[in-house]
Design brief:
- The relative contact order is 0.14.
- This protein has helices at residues 12-37, 45-48, 63-72, 101-115, 132-156, 159-186, 193-220, 241-273, 279-321, and strands at residues 50-57, 79-85, 88-95, 118-126, 227-229, 236-238.
- It has 322 residues and is an alpha+beta fold.
- It is 66% helix and 12% strand.
- Helix 1 (12-37) crosses helix 6 and helix 6 packs antiparallel against helix 7.
- Strands 2-3-1-4 form a four-stranded antiparallel beta sheet. Strands 5-6 form a two-stranded antiparallel sheet.
- The longest helix is centred in the last third of the chain and has 43 residues, at 279-321.
- It has two domains: 12-38 and 131-316, Multidrug efflux transporter AcrB transmembrane domain (Multidrug efflux transporter AcrB transmembrane fold, Up-down Bundle); 50-126, Alpha-Beta Plaits, CATH 3.30.70.2040.
């Protein structure tokens, strides 16, 4: 990759503006989901419960055909998978709760008409696999994780590094949740347990990428105050913390892009060629990785520089106030 030097700090208002342009509609979508669904995102069967139907067809159907029939009969977002029970290939359908017996008869009739006769192995009604208690424990674990990250980064670097890293992390989580909230409102996309896994993976990736950038800033911080020739004016001046952050991000820019690009290529292939069952999970991963890369490069370091500048201005005002 050809070496380039981007003045990130100079245009930080643009980077912050892009983030706000993504976060604000997402936050509005989350509020609308709370009003419409009673949850920040449209909950899937894993959260709301439903019915599990196991059918053995005489002629094995295409899974997409089964999904089309279920969608048409008023059960969008149902999970359809193939499984082997007693060495027999079985279609397992996980749908919303089939409380209306007439709806089940209609589904059975449509499946028989379009896909051929089948044998009903089991029809079970199940509760949500992720109950309120488990969800509460998961949120508690998430906040504990955030606290541990703040402690570690504060010990490894400084408290302001930790705060900026966590803010960038919240940016990624809110961007991902906001986009899926909009998907839930306009496309009917529901979240399941795989979405929780995607969020946790994105958190790990985002923090890792941000720490790499911050580690380079910490290493180069010793050059703050050293003399440098300003390319714009040609005059000699002292390097500021913003200059150091700029240089550090540019030194790690190629590495960050290459690392993220390899993951994005893999996820794109999975999204295009993979099955429908994991498509929303892969899409969540794609959005999270792209957001994490963006925040690590354009937001985290700019936030750190802004923090230091505000702190420096407050220190310079103290003697005059005294």
């Amino acid at each position: 990759m050809k070496k380039v030097h981007i003045d990130l700090i100079k245009y930080r208002s643009i980077w912050f503006g892009i983030s706000l342009a993504i976060l604000i509609p997402g936050l509005i979508g989350i509020v609308m989901c709370c009003i419409k669904f009673g949850a920040p995102l449209k909950p899937g069967i894993d959260f709301t419960g439903g019915s599990i139907l196991q059918y053995q067809f005489e002629k094995q159907p295409n899974l997409d055909q089964v999904r089309v029939i279920l969608d048409r009969d008023g059960l969008p977002g149902s999970q359809v998978q193939q499984a082997f029970i007693s060495n027999n290939e079985v279609i397992v359908m996980r749908t919303k709760a089939l409380d209306d017996e007439s709806l089940k008869r209609k589904i059975d009739a449509d499946l028989t008409k379009e896909l051929g006769p089948f044998k009903t192995l089991s029809v079970d009604k199940v509760s949500g696999t992720i109950g309120p208690e488990l969800l509460q424990n998961g949120l508690l674990a998430l906040f504990i994780t955030f606290g541990a990250m703040v402690c570690y980064i504060s010990w490894r670097f400084m408290p302001d590094y930790a705060v900026c890293a966590i803010v960038a992390l919240f940016h990624d989580v809110l961007a991902l949740c906001g986009i899926f909230a909009l998907f839930g409102l306009f496309l009917g996309t529901e979240i399941d347990s795989l979405f929780i896994s995607a969020i946790l993976t994105v958190i790990g990736f985002s923090v890792h990428d941000t720490i790499v950038v911050f580690d380079r800033i910490r290493e180069n911080a010793k050059y703050v105050g050293s003399k440098v020739i300003d390319p714009a004016t040609g005059q000699e001046r002292k390097k500021t913390f913003g200059d150091i952050a700029n240089d550090s991000v540019n030194q790690t820019l190629a590495r960050s892009i290459y690392t993220s690009l390899t993951v994005i290529i893999t996820l794109t292939a999975l999204y295009v060629l993979g099955g429908t069952t994991t498509r929303d999970f892969v899409l969540a991963m794609l959005i999270g990785i792209i957001s994490g890369t963006y925040s690590s490069i354009f937001n985290a370091s700019c936030l750190l520089v802004l923090w230091r500048e505000i702190k420096q201005r407050s220190r310079s005002k103290q003697p005059s106030l005294a």
